[in-house]
Amino acid sequence: MEAPPKRTVFDAVSSIEQTSICRLIYFAQIKSHQQVLTFFSDYSTNSFFDRISGLLLVYPSSVLHLVEADEETIYTTCLDLIMTEANGLTICRCLPVHVSTSGRLFPRWFMRKVNPPLGNGETTDFGDMMKMRNFYFNMVDIFYKFYFELKEGTANTEELKDKLDALTHETPTSSIPSENLIKSLLKTPRGFELSTLTENYWSGIVEKESIIWPFPDIQESSISLSEP
Fold first, then answer.
1. More confident position, 45 or 172
2. DSSP 187-206
3. DSSP category for residue 227
4. Radius of gyration of the chain (CA)
5. Contacts of 50 (CB under 8 A, 6+ apart)
6. What CATH number has the domain bearing residue 114?
7. How many structural domains is the chain composed of?
8. Is the pLDDT score of 227 beyond 50?
């Protein structure tokens, strides 16, 4: 009996087109970037398989993580994270989980250690709700501009890997979000703790996310890459 053909990540993405793909973006303060790199290298190998795609950026003192999967897989992953001290994450906040209108942005899951400039000025404090709202929408634009920039003109996975490897350079050429932006997000008085969002999901509690942090409409097209 012949062995079944090996599935590639592209086969997997095609096979779940009928399943709604959700996205979660979370950001966290970390104890040690090496601890984070070690944990997620092992955890992704043993748990992600072809179910999860996205990008984890590990800064010197924080992380920015885009996770793409079906809703239950996202919250199962979050549950693993909040129950595991070995992941190296401390304060961990997130944007609302939202349904993608066009599938996945990334063909599989990637992780890169980065050390970009901190950004202009100090971290931002928010004295009123209008400033917070403007910062929030601007921040979502910055995140997606960065993700779309990685996609633009990228023909296959090897080219995407080259772009991601370039992020590790001391002065990356992409519009990678600054670490001060991440630190400002961690200081905001509004938004979700990742642990609270996860516990509410598994407890059946429905948060009015649109009141806390409404997720803006994103005009997008998913990454569709060919094998090199």
1. 45
2. H-SSSEEHHHHHHHHHHT--
3. -
4. 17
5. 7, 9, 12, 13, 108
6. 3.30.70.100
7. 1
8. no
pLDDT in tens, 124-174: 666 667 777 778 888 888 899 999 889 888 888 999 999 999 888 766 666
Query: Does a structural domain hold residue 109?
Result: yes
Tokens of 202: 């598994």
**Residue 225 maps to a domain:** no
Q: What is the mean pLDDT of residues 104-108?
A: 92
Place of tokens 């969002």: 197
- What the block records as the tokens of 30 is 């970390």
- Full domain range(s) for residue 192: 10-208
The CA distance from 96 to 145, in Å, is 18
Do residues 207 and 185 touch, judged by C-beta distance below 8 A? no
| Residue 31: alpha-carbon gap to chain centroid | 19
The pLDDT confidence band at residue 25, using thresholds 50, 70 and 90, is very high
Taking the chain, what is the end-to-end CA distance rounded to the nearest angstrom?
Answer: 31
Give the span between the Cα atoms of 63 and 26, in whole angstroms: 8
Tokens of 157: 């996975």
In a domain, 108, yes or no: yes
Contacts 24+ apart (CB under 8 A), 191-196: 191/93, 191/94, 191/95, 192/93, 192/94, 192/95, 192/96, 193/92, 193/93, 193/94, 194/26, 194/28, 194/78, 194/81, 194/82, 194/92, 194/93, 194/94, 195/82, 195/92
Q: Is the pLDDT of residue 105 over 80?
A: yes
Q: Has residue 227 been placed in a domain?
A: no
